[in-house]
Amino acid sequence: MIRRRLMGGMYILVDHTPVACIDLATWGRWHADTAGRTVGKTDVGDATVSTVCLGLDHGGGGGPPLLFETMIFGGPHDGKQDRCATWEQAEAMHARWVGLLRDRTGQVTPLPRPAGQDEA
C-alpha cells in the first residue's frame, strides 16, 4: 500500500505536456534534468523567482494534478509559493510573480492573474 502511494502521481514532461509515469527509474532520470523542467528563473532585486515542474502531483486530488511550482527565494517574500497544472499556466504564474516583485521596486506593472487561479 505504501509503495503504491509513493509511486502514484509521478509525471514527466513531453514537449512541455505532463505525462503520467509509473517507472521510478524513468522519472528519476527525467527529474535529474533540471534544465528540461525549469519554466523560468528570474532575479528581482534581492529575490529570485523560480518556476519548475516538480513532477509530482501536489494537488491532493479532486482536480487536475498540480505539477508546477513558483517559489520566491530571498527578499521580504522569501518562501512564498504558488502551484498550477500546465506549462502555460506556469509561464503566466512566473511572469505574474516577477511582475508583482518588480512593481514593488517600481520597475513594472503587475500582470493579471490567470483566470481560475486562487490568490496565494
Strands, helices and their partners?
Blueprint: H1 2-7, E1 11-14, E2 17-20, H2 24-32, H3 34-37, E3 38-44, E4 47-53, E5 68-73, E6 81-84, H4 87-104
Antiparallel strand pairs: 1-2, 3-4, 4-5, 5-6
Task: Explain what the structure shows.
This protein is an alpha+beta fold and 120 residues long. The chain has one domain (2-104). It is built from four helices and six strands. The chain has a four-stranded antiparallel sheet. Strands 1-2 form a two-stranded antiparallel sheet. Strand 5 (68-73) and strand 6 (81-84) form a beta hairpin. The radius of gyration is 15 Å and the shape is elongated. The relative contact order is 0.16. The model is unreliable at 1-7 and 106-111 (pLDDT under 50).
Brief summary of the model shown:
The chain is of the alpha+beta class. It has helices at 2-7, 24-32, 34-37, 87-104, and strands at residues 11-14, 17-20, 38-44, 47-53, 68-73, 81-84. The chain has one domain (2-104).
**Number of H- or I-type helical stretches:** 4
Q: What is the count of β-strands?
A: 6
| Strand residues, percent | 25-35%
The helix fraction, in percent, is 25-40%
**Radius of gyration over alpha carbons?**
15 Å
Order of helices and strands: HEEHHEEEEH
- Structural class of the secondary elements? alpha+beta
Q: What profile does the largest beta sheet have?
A: 4 strands, antiparallel
Structural shape: elongated
Give the number of domains: 1
What is the average per-residue confidence, as pLDDT, rounded to a whole number?
A: 84
End-to-end C-alpha gap: 33 Å
Give the uncertain stretches in residue-range form.
Answer: 1-7, 106-111
List the strand order in the largest sheet: 3-4-5-6
